[in-house]
Queue: 2 jobs
Job 1
Amino acid sequence: MANLTLVQAINLALIQEMERDDRVLLLGQDVGANGGVFRVTEGLHKRFGGKRVVDSPLAESGIIGTAIGLAMAGLRPIPEIQFDGFLGPAYDQICSHAARMRTRTRGAFTVPLTIRVPVGGGIHAPELHSESPESIYIHTPGLKVVMPSSPYDAKGLLISAIRDPDPVIFFEPKRIYRAFREEVPEDEYTLPLGKARTVCEGEEMTVVSWGASVVQCMQAIERSGRGIELIDLRTLYPFDMDAVETSVKKTGRCVIVHEAPKTCGFGAEIAARIMERCFLHLEAPVQRVAGFDTIMPYYKLELDYMPDADRIARAIEETAAY
Amino acid sequence: MPIKTVLTAEIENVSILDAEGRFDEKLGKGLIPDADLVKLYGHMCTCRHLDEVAFKLQRSGRMGTYPQNMGQEAASLGAAYALNNDDWLVTCYRENCGLFWRGVPMESILLHWMGDERGNAMPRQHHATPIAVPIGTQMLHATGLAWAAKYRGEKRIACTFFGDGATSEGDFHEAMNFAANLDIPVVFCCQNNGWAISVPGHIQCSAPTVAQRALAYGMDTIQCDGNDLFAVVHCFRKAIKQARSTGRPFFIEAVTYRLGDHTTADDARRYRDQAEVDAWRARDPILRLRKYMAKRGLWSDAKEQELQAKVEVEVAATVERAEGITSPNRVDFFDHMYAEIPADLALQRDTMQTHGIGQDPSQIEGAVIELPAKEGH
């Protein structure tokens, strides 16, 4: 066991997968000698060389498009997009090709790549460095979408993503890259994609969240003193609706928390599924605590935009009082 | 300090067999053995006939939108002929002739345009990727495929095709830039056919050649008469040899012309002169090859008749296979979304014909609700 930050856990996962499988290679802007702008790939260039840790030209579509070719040829590329806000230029390659290749060729060609993307706000970054675009990709059939909230989960989920035969977008919540440490096994291990984690158990209410918001939820739950069950989805597609259903049928109340804008955010899907599956068990309307339907403000106001423990705690009380 | 010239550049244009039938013996002799030439010619005729039949299939409602390849057979065929069979061939949709030479079944192309994904299920031994529909995006895949070969220490290269319109896309520049700067052996071939639907070439590129765009990436480049099979083969041999030996990319601009409409949904009479089309008809790649073969005593009217009869039978059989394929199952589109279908998606598949979409039948205890009969039935 080692006491690692999320950055270190991802770094360790990358090292172990690169040692295990020489089909795995990294490409992206500044991932080489510089070790990535968040130092996630620190030391990998030195360890594995420029052939397997490739500083690419500055072009997101190029990074994903060439990674698709690498993957079609049977390699396991791990492209990094430096920030969430710069996924845009790669959108066409991700959605028009990576997501569709398997189905449009009836399985003749597949794209087993893992796209790593730092995601979300909270680090006082400039414009377009603090976005939460996960719903766009959850809404794109053919992709898998993962967002861990802890070092332990990050390592196990990333290894699963790399070994997965389909394209995975692996969102790394940058706000908690170094926010805390956790015991992480040094040996390799995998966590199944599509399985949620029950962070804490309770009978009174269910809170569903993912990514950095999970940490805010834990603070709010602690403050509430209530018996609340917190479910961290961890994988957003495919997502573990069974875990949500079981919990909500037990508690009858549910609050969903995410940083992305409310309208058409993934919380809307979870809420609709709860309606389908738990209608007669509900004691209160399903509530969402989300980012607002605005452009993510510059960093002076970013904490007012993002759901924090206060807002979540208030929603918990409102839902309990309904 | 005096002003210095830091770059001067020249771009060669290669023509071996011109539209008038003049043949450059120095460049052309021995380039394509006679026996191969006869085969290549037959292939172009088959492709042309399939193209004409496909057009008719669309017009008679038996096929969806189809982009005719007419007039552009030589470029992709010359490439496929010059490449090794395990080099990647990464095309858009006017490279049927090269794909067929590679061994891709003709009905695959028909099936694609008949709205059936099974047409894209390219057997991997052909090392050909399925038709790419978004413009210019496939060049990056070619770069990645060739990169993978380099990564594994294979001698395989990739060759990718695109039109003049695609050279305006960002992905074109990104693919060229990646291949040049990361030393990836890709042969980029622009089929400059003068038109991107209705937009003429000078709106895509106002420089005198498309070929010179490669110079900006430090890439060797050449232009050829894209309707001259000999010139195409000459340029590809040079490009392939260089890419394979140096690991560097190479650019070929094949100047050609789209004799047909952009697709069957287009009417090119709206935006271009018939005189221009007629002038290019005289430069047809098939026509000039036939004349050349006749002059060399390799071809005759009798042989032509025999070939055309054979081609008609072959194409008719292709159409029969494409139209005769069993219909896909109504739930087939779920089958290849993921290696393993997620449970939620399996539920959608399993209930699509019995329940409302998205409905979880457990809510109604699995009951199948009968719809009331429609009015008047």
Job 2
Amino acid sequence: MATLGPNQGDAVRIGVYICHCGINIAGKVDVADVTQFAASLPGVVVARDYKFMCSDPGQELIQQDIREHGLNRIVVASCSPLMHEATFRRAAAEGGINPFFFQMANIREHVSWVTADKAAATEKSRALVAAAVSRVGGHEALERQRVAVKPDVLVVGGGIAGIHAALTLADSGKTVYLVEREPTIGGHMAKFDKTFPTLDCAACILTPKMSLVRQHPNITLWTYAEVADVSGYVGNFSVTVRRKPRYVIEDRCVGCNACVEACVFKEGKFADEFNYGLAKRKPVYMPFPQATPSVVLIDPATCLHFKTGKCKQACKAACERDAIDFDQRDELVEIEVGAIVVATGFQPFDAERVPEYGYGQYPGVYTSLEVERLVNASGPTGGEITLRDGRVPKAVGIIHCVGSRDHATNKYCSRVCCMYSLKLAHLVKERTGAEIYNFYIDMRTPGKGYEEFYDKLLEEGVHFIRGRAAEVTDWTMTPDEEGKLVIRAEDTLIGAVRRIPVDMVVLSVGLEAQADAGEVRRLFNISCSHEGWFLERHPKLAPVSTFTDGVFLAGACQGPKDIPDTVAQAGAAAAEAMALIDKGYVELEPNTAFIDEERCSGCKTCIAMCPYSAISFIADARVARVNEALCKGCGTCVAACPSAAAQQHLFTDDQIFDEIAGVLSYV
Amino acid sequence: MSKPKVGFYWCASCGGCEEAIVDLAADILGVVAAVDIVFWPCAMDFKRADVEAMADGEMAVCFVNGAVRTSEQLEMAELLRRKAGLIVAFGSCAHTGGIPGLANLYSREGVLAAAYDAAFATVNPEGMRPQTEYAAPEGTVTLPELHETVKKLDQVIPVEYYLPGCPPPVKLITGALGAILEGTLPPKGSILAPEIALCSECPRKDSKPEKLDFTAFKRPHQIIADPALCLLAQGLLCLGPSTRAGCDAPCITGNMPCTGCGGPLEGTKDLGTNALSAAASVLEATDEASIAVGLAEVPDPAGAFYRYSLPASLLYAKKGS
């Protein structure tokens, strides 16, 4: 079946290389046997086995054989193509043949790692090598297409990850579009009081960066906006951003709050999102004093004008700059970018999902983020830690792992809760002198200065009870429990069930993927784990890349992490984006689909199938045509084509059938 | 110069291909004038012995229709192969196995049992089966043996050309005869029909939308099809997109969907799987339940997608009994 590629006049001369991968493959597969078998296959001139084919000497072996034996096809049986296909293609090219005259057989992930029996693993390896040898003869010489990269970058999400990535990129001279869904950037960090373990004031270190974003000449900041559509490919993304109406003309508003004061509602009446409902706001409001941009917005769900049409519009009258515009509509903005940094963050676990802790039932039960606001000097109580009834708590229980390490909710550890619980314990004790009880499963404090912080808390007299709290109840058993909330927990260190009466319960909620992570994932064509965290390309060696080239990850959207890790990752994502853009071009994998127009009957079956809108119907020729720059090589059109007019480079029907024939010839 | 000698023969077929030659109508006179018909058992009185008496290669061309499923058909195919310079596989059965080829979904015994036991109004308490030899009082009589599988012609003898269709359209037959007489035949192995799917010449091509939008296939008797609109767009399982053109879409002109007699295009390994894959692509169905609903009116998928091409497909035939 083997046919020659267009660049090869001579007969097919195949070199086959069986990699030991140390003992990864050789421990399970009889590599000498497979090598001997490969040597017997038609067209094979050289067959060798080697300890590490991906090493320099391994690659040199291929190049040397190409020169000495006039090889024109290479097969390497080793790991997965994702791991080393690029390596061996490069080796083939440096040896002087077209890099696509190469085929990989995966005898590690597909064989040695998943086969218990040695003889069976060797048989399977033989079959896969036979398939690769059968196929490679029919490979065509292909050229990679170079496409220029658009120089601008989109950063999605204006938390600390997005802010740091945007500033890094902008400082390097890149034009950055920063899109944030909320009316202000700052994310969760803007709500914190202090940061662990140094107890730096969060606002003191964050708000200067927020202002820098606003002022940076290279950053276009769109808050209260969302990415509506993404098309294109690495280096050439077209993005549509939907700017939601804030009913305030952003360029005119200076954040003087005159409109807020003038609003017909004399007092705030509606739950203030920024303070988790611990304070009230008016329909026209500034999210928080340091909001960036410093621009108010009007909430149409509560504004009298929108609800009844009968408001006297005192806000509009009060604005000296005529910035209020009740007729604002969604605005769609189109931008072209070369790279995208996704930094969409997390959502806190909803504490009501653990009903035994009484959140939403007992006023004395708070989430950790609510307490962050209570201890914050610019929070709803001005930093006074008071309960909803105004009392200052004398005893506070902090329950760890709410929505983390729990088979009923999330199995994973949220990584930050132990440390922020310690921080809140310290701050609450410092402000109120209350007795603090931490209920923990394990204390997890790895990190620079983290264990030391834990030690400090132990010295401060904070109580630690090792055991998952069973419940929070107001059902009292003794007089000293009267008027208190009782936390019932098994103290596993003393082997007894304890009842601790407290005034305030703090639930240390875990981190979860954003509720709409699924939609966002599809928007950017990236993958996510079953918990909803966006999937990095490789957990160790490509932690900020995704399987979609040109889309990078930063911060907690990839998994729970604290601020230092988030900032480090944001810097890495910015660097990856810069590397892509500064290279100036991308080389497209030539595994694109193409349509033989002579054979296309114009039935249009393929057109609606293409997930990338890469196929269009050419009206005058009455055939379908693939835009190879848009084609991702998914093969959907090839499968759908009723008449085999659509084919795909590297996966032509002939190549696939040759491969199957190779496996079957062995069986 | 003597006229080229031409033969026609039929193997496992319905006789429609013979009709197709008669359908040449007045043109047949031109054929008769231009060639010397030396073998055509359906229409003229020739015997096997007449063929055996010919020198090898004496016949310029022999058109063989029908699939090969008996020992006699195999013998005749091999005999004609020796006597003819060119063999043209004529019609779907010779080209890709045709309707008789659907017998490959069953074993030989399954086919015989259906015909000799299970068939309505059959009484066969002794379970009799056709015998290849029977000693009758008048002497021994013989019958050809039924093979285990049905084969297309080129699975038993080398074939130079193919004329697809059930039966081949008059236009393609006259084109082929013209090419033979004028010596303008394409390279051997060619299919004497356009290398493009039927949609290319379908009168309703322009009415086909880019996105089909139906959740279930329908059968022709269930709807009154709009005579101007693409039949696939109306939910009818039309195999036009997978089937070789050349017929000028008479079925579609008659408001019936294409059933695929033109056979696969070059490069298509298997018309049935290609058509099935395409049909699965256009059907709006996302889970098993909606797929079941979508395909409920395709009660015989093998017969629908492989109607004329099972022996030519990757499936080929049922293995074992």
